Amino acid sequence: MNIKAGSLPDVCADQQSLVLFDAKYRADTWRRRVCLPEFRTDEAKYKFPWRTQSTSEALATEELHLPPLDVRAASSSEATPDLQHPNFAADTIPLLLYPTWQENYSHTISNNIGWLYTHLVKNNASWADMVRLVLYTPHGLPVPKHWPDLVGGLIPHGLQSFAEFSARNGNGSRCFQDLIVCTADDMDHSSNVWQAAQHIAQHYRPTLPDPPLRLITDYSQAVRSESPQAAATVLQVVFAWRDGAAVVQITNVEELRLLCSWWFYRCRTTGRLFRAACGTWEFTNLTTSLAVAQRADVLVGLHGANMANSWFMRPGSSAIEIFPPAWPWDIHRQWLEQDPQLQLRWWGLVVKDHDAYSPGVLEQEMASRPGLDQGDMAQRKLQRNSNVRVPWAGVERVLEEVASTWGDRAAYERAVGQHRQLWEVAGGQVRSIPKMPTAAVLTG
How confident is the model over 202-258, as pLDDT tens digits? Predict the structure, then answer.
């Protein structure tokens, strides 16, 4: 198997342990026993889902590491008949994935689904149709709810947590001729997140619902020099939003939608006229998120896992990601650039006005709980999770760049090369910047 991971022969799973029956691990008197393999990694991190529904603990305990995988040799006194007399199944190959940030929607796609797609689909692995995915979750917790739908088009034999897979009262075989363990360290950087997301979109496309997305446009605000009836390319612009209980929100999303519906732009180089039909959408489940993403030409949203939905957009679409200066991490751009064809255009906007930010749910809770350990990046994280009023001037300027490069990959690459991909807005002034600024907490 041409895969960078640990392949184990003749192995059973028992109560979150791997039991190795290979003779080389036995302690015989006439030969030296081979040491058991070790599977652990500093890269496999997670957030514990605290029972209190509180968000504040995440600040102090964000860097939790998955426990090491327990591996032992088969014994002469196994507790169950299937381990006493194992029958190693040959028609299924469990792939035990030791993931990083498994509870995060964006990281699940980029760090885990992208790797699975590359090695099972893109590389056309001969054994891909035999794979049964097993997710190593911390402390026997269930598989995070977004995983089953995301892997639905990749894995033929379903998905289980390691706790379920190895349970003694479970159904099906627990012993296999081959089992693959893949840790976060094994996940190389050859993944193509864009292609993986498009594979998921293609899998679900025949069954996607018609999303109840209301797009508005209002040509009555057009200047006199432009007739409301003038032929124009209409961009469908969707603003991603989250409900009142969310960690972070755009506080003026309805204002942005209205101003967007008035927007028009005539490209200076081509003379082409653009207008917009604009709406808002809360991305809550995969199928409707896919349907909306496939319909949108431009997706505008705050930095965070929500922006991973842009990866499901049609080729040639654009994503506008909005950042606070305290957290200028353009990781979505970096993931998208794994695709050499740059099929999704990425744009960034940094909002630098201190008055644009107001306390989010996280900051409000922290203020109500003095003395709670806030971690070494508390102020940066608080501002990252602040609500923000996004200046329309910044969105409008980036929309002009989207229009100027619409349908033209070479024009987009020129815009990137000329530092017109990333913008910042402060005091009503908008300017392009060559790279992400150094992280800085805004002060009044």
Answer: 999 999 988 878 887 765 554 444 555 568 999 999 999 877 655 788 999 999 999
Alpha carbon distance 360, 348 (integer Å): 22
Instruction: Give the CA-trace dihedral at 57, 187, 40, 140, to 10 degrees.
Output: 50
H or E stretch including 98? strand 93-98
Give, in degrees to the nearest 5, the angle at Cα 36 between 168 and 15.
15
Find the helix or strand (DSSP H, E) in which 400 lies: helix 392-404
Given a cut of 60, whether residue 183 has pLDDT beyond it is: yes
pLDDT given at position 4: 40
**Vertex 354 angle, CA 351 and 357, to 5°:** 75
Q: Which residue has the tokens 């980036």?
A: 398
pTM higher than 0.85? yes
Cβ-in-10-Å burial (0-12, 13-18, 19+) of 372 comes to: middle
Beta bridge partners of 274: 233, 265
| Rounded Cα gap, residues 433 and 329, in angstroms | 14
Contact 165, 127 (CB under 8 A): no
State the Cα–Cα distance between residues 434 and 421, nearest whole angstrom: 8
pLDDT of 398 over the 60 cut:
yes
Contact (Cβ atoms closer than 8 angstroms) between residue 247 and residue 385? yes
C-alpha span between 53 and 49 (Å, rounded): 8
The neighbouring-strand residues paired with 179 are: 8
> To 10 degrees, what angle do helices 253-262 and 392-404 make?
40
DSSP H helical segments within 86-161, as ranges? 105-107, 114-116, 147-151
Give the separation between CA 400 and CA 264, rounded to whole angstroms.
Answer: 9
Which of 391, 384, 386, 401 is closest to 346 using CA atoms?
A: 401
| Residues near 386 by beta carbon (within 8 Å), at least 6 away in sequence | 248, 324, 357, 358, 359, 360, 363
- Phi, psi dihedrals of residue 20, rounded to the nearest 5°: -95, 125
- Asked if 4 and 186 count as a contact pair (C-beta separation under 8 A), the reply is yes
Both ends of the chain: CA-CA distance in Å?
Answer: 58
3-class SS at 75?
A: coil
